[in-house]
């Protein structure tokens, strides 16, 4: 990396020091969906920006329980990579005083990009689309459940109840304040359906930015929760048999300043190219679940009639469709079936790749589904009902294999298979207990 990086590093370090930052957390999200970190003192930030920070490539095959598998190209104790912070995103963490955070990209020792870097994969897909004149606006919704450390519920207020906001008003104020202090553009915050469940949404931005923001939102919520003696769970399943935590991805595609989801000519104002883009995503949805619903626990959440989007169908404003179309002024598609175990970079990169393949194929959307598919005489297909089913679709997806590249594709495949093996024969209660506090 060049001298310019070091100069920007010095400026960023000075800016952060002026805000009383002592350490900078450089984070990346692994294939199991866990955000991992290396911290540096702020005075070493310029050096980190210029030369990177060492880390092992073995994290590419870590599992949710910190056990380690191997894959064809990655795994084992050898080798080293360099983590480079994205200084443009460096920001003091409002709920972790003295700390700042920056998302990191991973490079090899020789300065070439690490082929399994998930954040660079997302960037590659954005660049690929841009070369075709397409850009995106994206955002992840963040759902989480709070509990006291002893497992009790800090509020018994009803779903979406003002009661819950009243019970936890100091906590929710501090969440809002912290997010805003980090320059996140919060749209809404509200109690969700499940006991102790909340949701926050932030404004749409470019896809890599949206993935960065969701990491920042979650760690901020976690930090504020700890300050209120609460624990936050972003896991797909917090209570077996109950509504889980989704991480719905909102996405619109743009060409020449025109939103293809509202370019007109098709159903609900969809443009032809927008329909093909969504058709590609819908077709690949079973395979995409290996990225967007990547845990064995994901399939405890992804069941009908819980607004998780368990069917391979689309529909205007249909909360039971895997792909929900939101029409109008800020038209976008919401991928409902994704959850809080997803690596947000992999999920968004995979979705863009699928959409581009749809455009190439001139894909069309099938008949739309309105109402709860579970109550239809002739329902659309269910999405995969286990990680094994998603993995089979992922292995068969030429689109995702080509987009991810063999090295990353194979590492993801190995992690999914190892987690299937890890939880084989375990009850839903066991799976939930083992994953509830990991994401
Ligand atoms: N918690 C639901 C899920 O698992 C989503 C509820 C909603 O529509 O916001 O995705
Ligand atoms: Mg929600």
3D structure, described in words:
- With 439 residues, this protein is of the alpha+beta class.
- The protein has 2 domains: 3-112, Roll (Ubiquitin-like (UB roll)); 124-435, Creatine Kinase, Chain A, domain 2.
- Helix content is 37%, strand content 20%.
- It has 13 helices and 16 strands.
- It has helices at 3-18, 45-51, 118-130, 162-167, 169-181, 207-227, 272-292, 298-301, 344-361, 387-396, 398-404, 406-422, 428-435; strands spanning 23-29, 35-41, 53-55, 81-85, 91-92, 99-108, 134-140, 142-147, 186-191, 197-202, 231-233, 249-255, 258-259, 311-316, 321-326, 332-335.
- The strands form 3 sheets. Strands 1, 2, 3, 4, 5 and 6 form a 6-stranded mixed β-sheet that branches. Strands 7, 12, 13, 14, 15 and 16 form a 6-stranded mixed β-sheet that branches.
- A hairpin with a 6-residue loop joins strand 5 (91-92) and strand 6.
- The longest helix has 21 residues, at 207-227.
- The mean pLDDT is 96.
- Glutamic acid (GLU) binds at residues 143, 192-193, 243-244, 246, 301, 307-308, 319.
